[in-house]
Amino acid sequence: MSPLEDSSGAPGTGFEFRVLGPMEVLADGVALPIGSSGVRSTLACLLLEPNQIVPMDRLIDTLWGDDPPASARTILHGYISKLRKLFAESADADRPEIVTRSPGYVLNVDAERIDAHRARGLVNRAYGLAPEERSRLLTEALALWRGPVLADVTSSQLHRMVAPNLDELRLLALEERVAADLDLGRHHHLVVELSTLVEQYPLRERLTGQLMLASYRAGHRAEAQARYHVLRQRLSNELGIDPGPELRGLYERLLRDDDTLLGSQRRQVVDAAVPDVGIGRPIPAELPPAVAGFVGRERELTALDRLLTQRERGSVNLLAVLTGTAGVGKSALAVTWAHRVAESFPDGQLYASLRGFDSERAPLAPGEALTSMLKTLGVAADAIPVDVDDRTALYRSLLADRRVLVLLDNARDSEQVRPLLPGSSESLVLVTSRRRLDGLVVRSGAVVLPLETLPTETAVELLDRAGTPGTSESEPAAARELAELCGGLPLALRIAAARLAANPARGVADLVHELTDERYRLHALDIDDADTSVRRAFDISYRNLHPLHAKTFRLLGLVPGHTFTGHAAAALCGTDPPSARRRLRALALAHLVTEPGSDRFGMHDLLRVYARDLLASSDGRQTISRLSEEDDAALRRLLHYYLVVADHARRFLRPARDALDFAGDGTVARPEITSRAEALEWFDAEWSNLVAAVRVANAEGMHELAWPLVRLQFNYLMVRCPWEDWIQIYSDGLDSARAVHDGVGKLLMSAGLGVAYSRSGQPEAALTHYAESHREAMTTGDPALLALTQVNMGAVLFRLGRYDEAQGHCREALEAYRTLGDRYREAGALNNLAQVEQVNGNLEEALAHLREAEVMYREADDLETLAMVLNNCGEVSIELGRIAEGERYHHEALEVAQSCGSLERQAAAYLGLGESAFSRGDLSVARTRWETALTIFETVGSHRADEVRKRLGDLPTTWQNG
Fold it and tell me: What positions does the domain OmpR/PhoB-type occupy (predicted)?
């Protein structure tokens, strides 16, 4: 007979012992009869401590507890005898042996033959291995469990002593295997498995955390957050505690959409703060692609290498500035060197184009640059502080213990750079600028490296490397003349080389002849004017384009933003997206357009200026602001495209509460947006373009397009809260509405500015704009618009403590909405009126108003505002002494806020839940909930964080110290 094979993969020969399930003894794969329950219990005791003395007294206590029979020792001797006989019947030379050793017995056996010890060994071996091998070993260990431990052993004492430890070992192996599978990106399969496990072990925080993470990675954000609330509620009800700090930390990261939660989907280093669920922090790798065919600059490269050496020796001089004229190759040198030394910066490389000398766009503000880099470092968009100084502090904290190379390209002045400098000596900063930035030399000890144009020999070498190898050898004199005509500027040389490579039949002399032809020569092909030299090189590429591609290139000069998509280019050119993409890729082949990402195109800053110069000079015009009829129509098509897509996308974020409607325009080809996540993704990607589009529409006098485009960003602004952009575009929108005397536009723009200032904690400024909006509403004679402004006025006057005035506005708005039959806006008036009644001590009236508003917001399915009203209900209920009722309101508010993704409402719910716990004397729970509220308020930059800090600071000192 062939021996049976153990399903766990263990050897099928010799003795094997199984306790992880019904107890079994196998000899060569054949199960042996063990005997009575007493014999089985005795063997179990010995197996669980192999090769160790198990005292007689412990065996007796395990078998009989506090009431052993008088003949217990004799009976035990009999059990041992039967086991010895069982083992002796085997011919296995390595058969186990029971030896008498005072004060008990020893079972001499290979511990690997006992499934419990083999499982423990597999679990221990798995630590530190790669995820795939770790998962395999842990899966093998888990397969050893065949059911409840010692399922057929009757000793209750033995079960109490043994089962919990082995059950815990199994759960540990299971959690570790899940963690390995999470590292392997198997989250979709884990969601189902973990859902069952969490039902089996509902208080197991690590399993819940792993399910939250798997659900989040699988795209089920709401379910991930809901799991946390289910566990929190269960812990509160059954144990009177809240989830531990690890799970709370994970939940808070979920709220922020922390990129580092994506695990193996991004490059990571281990985050020791939350090891249980595999959360890491991203390693940025933002350097632009290395420049092909880079030559020369040995002196500057040596100087930069020397700076790196000084850094390794602990020097504090960790800042270098590359200066020189436009097109001289500062960025190329910086990027090339950065790639060469990238391995010296294991924590990554950050990159920012500061637009210091962009002729059409303002320099990138330090706050904007910090926002971008904080996102790259793993900070969620809604977690970035409002104040620029706070952003700088967070940025420096994140880099404090990291070795990062920071490349800041095209800086305008020292003040633009200084907030972007890390605070520690671990990171190195490389800056490029057309100016020397002496302020950085004086205050920050920067090393300045000025760049000159390339010498002729090096320029010829660049022509060879960037174009067709051997060009200079075949026509050495022409190659030298071409290098000189390009002024030694690397950008011009590369474009010339690309032209030669695109048409191998054309000789270098032919290109030189074209450059020197007076019919095309620009007087600016002069070494003293680098910008003009670059433009001359652009002329060469442009004149050889297909007419359709040339027209496309010119029109791209109208694009307000830095990058654009195929859909945007299609709208601009009046074609379909596939055709637009073909045109753009043809331009990319001519090095006139870049394609930094999928369906994302861009132009070098100087190329964009050149394209705009072409527009301005095509009919003798001097400025882009006087567009031809054709160009005016193209720009309007682009702005109309942004209006249509923005209107479509905003409706996934919140209900549209105005009369603007562009989304139904079927003549515009728009990207596929079918969900809230996709809408946010589109707004995030296009945000800088939308801001620039508003500015251009305003500047070009297209005011009837400018202010509606601003209004269509409102729902996105409410989610992301980019305060500087919010105020900037609404100010531009207000200018446009005033320019065309559009009363509704002026009203909405003023109201939007009021919201921005109010939500950022500036009620006095908010009042100014709300008052302007109110005055405009009075001139329109529209009762609905007037009531809208009165609601706003009531809210801000309430915040300013002017309660009587607030009450008057709220009552008038309430009456107007009831007359109009507008239940949705009636609810807003009721909510604001309730706040006034609350501060006046009329708590029952306040609660009655809030309950009316609650019903109306449920009807309108406005979850964010419903969460606010529920929180208000909870606050008033607690103030009335109805603690349990108030807690119920706050719990529901938390669930509603979680479902719609409103962080500020969730924080308010935690604040209220902490208040309810405090009111009933549960200070520990109050502290935990207030700490959670504080974290979220700080995340969204809310001024209410100060309120929570005060509550935490006012907790009894004796409790805090205890």
Answer: 2-109
